[in-house]
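Feature request, filed as a ticket because there's no other form

It would be nice if the structure record came with a short human-readable summary line next to the tokens. Right now we just get the raw output. Example of a typical job, pasted below so the devs can see what we mean:
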Amino acid sequence: MKELVEVIAKALVDYPDEVVVSETEKDKVIVVDLKVAQSDMGKVIGKSGRIAKSIRTVVSAASAKSDKKVIVEIDN
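Raw output as currently delivered:
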């Protein structure tokens, strides 16, 4: 999931070198933490959170075959 989030985020932002994605796993939950440059936060979140919701939907669909729940958190 980490690679998927990284590819999507780098395609959206102006500073792809500053995209940092980390992944932690506990029991049946995977938390993917996305960090981008402050000036790119709006591009990753989108109007009313639409782009962030879309990223979470794509990741959720990609993880549907596994038994694990994936949570995407966006930080700056």
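Something like this underneath would help us a lot:
The chain has a mean pLDDT of 93.
Strands lie at 20-26, 29-35, 69-75.
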